[in-house]
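Retry 2 of 3 after timeout on previous attempt. Resubmitting structure tokens to design endpoint.
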């Protein structure tokens, strides 16, 4: 017992026989620590149990071992939100985390001790999300990612010895057809929009800015001399729950953009410049220097813009229902149709990496390698030689026919 051992336990027959064929067998590691026998259930994989026992014994010898604390998931999740997430992530991300915890994770794991959460339990939760709750694979993966992150911090803070969700793999997400408007649909859409929302929608279509970035845009961000728009902030609107929790009366606040790369400079087209110059002459003055605001110059509420203006405009134009974010996709497809380089598209959209751009839009980009052979011949032998060779080949093919 000084070195510890691994115990095989079957919940069906209650014995430890090695020839038991029941499903749901668990492995536990047993060891001595501070004069007491400790049991720790690892899971259904004996190799995981062996690795865990080796780790525990090494930490005991090095006097770095700490016993996992007894804390339920709901309590730790609240502590994690307060002490880590609130200061580490953007307000919108924090809202998503709290919603996923409240609606999915806490109802499932809330009353369990952290040490009672197993890999099999996490895997079963993922399957239930997909097959019983009919959640999308993307939402299921978001839940798994959040659970992994919380349990990772539980390990780092000494509440858990190992992360039971670490080896659970995300589910496959099938590629989804991207929604966007083609040029004639854009014109129909803009024709049905009322000002000042027509200019707001036009700006979204010709810059690819995110909704919060548009609503946080200030006149000082427009470089009229160089025809550029600087993205420096985003508008965040608080929910009633957040206002009550924070004890604030201000229903909105400015925040930094999504990532460091999101602080960027976007090309302003001549038509967009004309529309914004006209809008500047007629829009109400705003104490916050906002480009798009209410009649009193206050920030627009993002959800009201979508529900009261964007969706009705689509309906009047006889267009299918799309998301406001799809105006960003529309802008990207317009750039791709011009043959714009992917690196420029990344910079205009403010993606953190070129991989994000390629994952989203790589299937729409022109096929790499098209006419490479002809271009190589032209470089080496000259365009006129290649033209003569092609003409000869075409003539030979015609005679053969």
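Retry 2 succeeded. Sequence:
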């Amino acid at each position: 017992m000084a070195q510890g051992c691994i115990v095989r336990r079957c919940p069906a027959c209650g014995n430890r026989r090695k020839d038991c064929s029941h499903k749901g067998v668990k492995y536990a590691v047993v060891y001595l620590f501070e004069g007491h026998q400790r049991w720790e259930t690892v899971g259904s994989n004996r190799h995981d149990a062996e690795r865990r026992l080796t780790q525990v014994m090494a930490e005991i010898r090095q006097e770095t071992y700490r016993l996992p604390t007894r804390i339920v998931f709901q309590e730790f999740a609240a502590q994690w939100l307060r002490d880590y997430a609130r200061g580490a992530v953007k307000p919108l991300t924090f809202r998503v985390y709290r919603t996923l915890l409240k609606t999915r994770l806490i109802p499932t794991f809330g009353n369990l001790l952290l040490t009672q959460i197993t890999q099999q339990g996490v895997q079963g939760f993922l399957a239930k999300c997909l097959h019983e709750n009919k959640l999308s694979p993307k939402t299921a993966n978001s839940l798994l990612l959040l659970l992994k992150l919380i349990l990772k911090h539980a390990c780092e803070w000494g509440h858990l010895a190992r992360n039971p969700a670490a080896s659970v793999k995300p589910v496959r997400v099938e590629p989804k057809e991207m929604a966007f408007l083609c040029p004639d649909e854009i014109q129909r859409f803009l024709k049905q929009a009322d000002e000042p929302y027509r200019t707001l929608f036009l700006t979204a279509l010709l810059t690819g800015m995110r909704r919060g970035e548009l609503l946080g845009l200030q006149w000082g961000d427009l470089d009229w001399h160089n025809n550029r728009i600087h993205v420096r902030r985003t508008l965040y609107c608080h929910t009633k729950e957040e206002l009550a929790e924070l004890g604030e009366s201000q229903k909105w606040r400015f925040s930094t953009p999504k990532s460091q790369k999101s602080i960027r400079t976007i090309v302003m087209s001549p038509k967009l410049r004309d529309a914004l110059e006209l809008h500047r002459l007629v829009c109400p003055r705003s104490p916050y220097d906002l480009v798009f605001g209410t009649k009193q110059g206050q920030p627009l509420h993002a959800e009201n813009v979508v529900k009261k203006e964007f969706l009705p405009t689509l309906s009047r134009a006889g267009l299918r229902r799309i998301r406001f974010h799809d105006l960003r996709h529309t802008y990207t497809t317009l750039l791709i149709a011009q043959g714009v380089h992917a690196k420029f598209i990344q910079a205009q959209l403010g993606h953190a990496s070129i991989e994000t751009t390629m994952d989203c839009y790589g299937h729409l980009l022109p096929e790499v390698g098209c006419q490479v052979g002809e271009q190589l011949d032209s470089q080496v032998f000259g365009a006129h030689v290649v033209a003569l060779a092609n003409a000869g080949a075409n003539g030979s093919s015609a005679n053969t026919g």
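Attempt log closed. The radius of gyration is 29 Å.
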